[in-house]
Design goal:
2 domains; mainly alpha; binds heme C; rod-shaped; single chain; 273 residues
């Protein structure tokens, strides 16, 4: 009884030696690491691999798939490699990663009697998973280059900037009756908020328009929310004293990095209404 656990690895080694002597013939496609041939590479493959090695399960239907590190042997280093890939960011296994033939000749094969693998899993571009196991996740994967979820969003004033930033963070001061700084940003029957800003010179430093379409760094509104308005005034020869404060002023300061980025992207994309 006690010797059984040593016999199992021996059987595997003998099996490996046996298949090594068999001439290369038609092989089933497989995905490296998918030891149980369920088209997924996960902990179950490591468990099966260990069971084959140490608990008499097996032999593997497709030994090449269990040879995670592609060293031509199925041994303890394979489940170890697989666990590192799954849990320690060890990077993808050697090819074939998404269902194919072994590009490196070795003694292991994937006989046509096994189910091998089915179609390569496609990368789903917004699930934060490396579905096709090529090492690139979601939008970082070139497969997703034209997927709508990976294209940069295009912002508009009335669709994004006005409701998300101006209305929530600015009109408390920049609307009648106060119109602080002489600036009315409220969109109403009598005031077009967009027209007030785009291509309109600021009072504090007339060299800058509030919004210069396509150029956030030349836009006074952006410099005021970014907090680079004093440097901007200096660069343009305006009075730095007149440049005033970062917006929203005082205790209301400042916008979140995401809000500042939204305004920046909107201007740099052309400041669409
Ligand atoms: C708590 C009141 C308050 C809030 C909130 C506020 N502002 Fe101001 N804003 C002022 C005051 C007061 C001035 C004039 C003094 C100064 O510039 O420091 C001013 C001036 C400005 C100017 C310069 C006007 C000019 O003619 O050059 C811009 C641009 C501006 N604000 C944009 C914004 C934006 C964008 C927001 C929202 C993200 C905002 N402000 C939020 C009070 C406020």
């Amino acid at each position: 009884m006690t010797n059984l656990r040593f016999i199992s690895p021996l059987v595997v080694v003998l099996f490996a030696m046996f298949v090594a002597t068999v001439p290369v013939s038609a092989q089933e496609n497989f995905s490296r690491g998918d030891c149980n041939l369920d088209d997924q590479i996960n902990i179950a493959d490591a468990v099966l691999s260990l069971s084959i090695l140490f608990s008499g399960a097996g032999p593997a239907l497709c030994p090449d798939a269990c040879d995670v590190n592609d060293d031509g042997n199925t041994d303890i280093s394979d489940p170890v490699s697989l666990l590192s890939i799954l849990f320690s960011n060890a990077g993808p296994p050697p090819a074939p990663i998404t269902c194919g033939q072994d590009p490196t000749p070795d003694g292991l094969d994937c006989p046509t009697t096994s189910s091998g693998c089915t179609a390569p899993p496609a990368e789903i571009c917004d699930n934060n998973v490396d579905d096709d196991l090529d090492g690139d996740i979601d939008c970082a994967d070139s497969d997703c280059a034209t997927d709508p979820v990976c294209l940069p969003p295009t912002y508009s004033y009335f669709g994004d900037v006005y409701p998300q930033v101006i209305q929530t963070k600015c009109t408390v001061c920049h609307a009648p009756p106060s119109n602080f700084g002489g600036l009315n940003l409220e969109d109403s029957m009598t005031n077009d908020s967009y027209a007030t800003l785009v291509n309109q010179p600021s009072a504090e430093c007339g060299s800058y328009d509030f919004v210069e379409p396509g150029d956030s760094s030349a836009s006074w509104l952006f410099r005021k929310i970014e907090g680079t308005h004093v440097a901007a005034a200096q660069a343009a020869g305006c009075s730095t004293a007149a440049a005033g404060s970062q917006m929203p002023i005082g205790g209301f300061c400042c916008l979140t990095p995401a809000e500042i980025q939204l305004v920046k992207d909107w201007i740099d994309q052309g400041a669409a209404p």
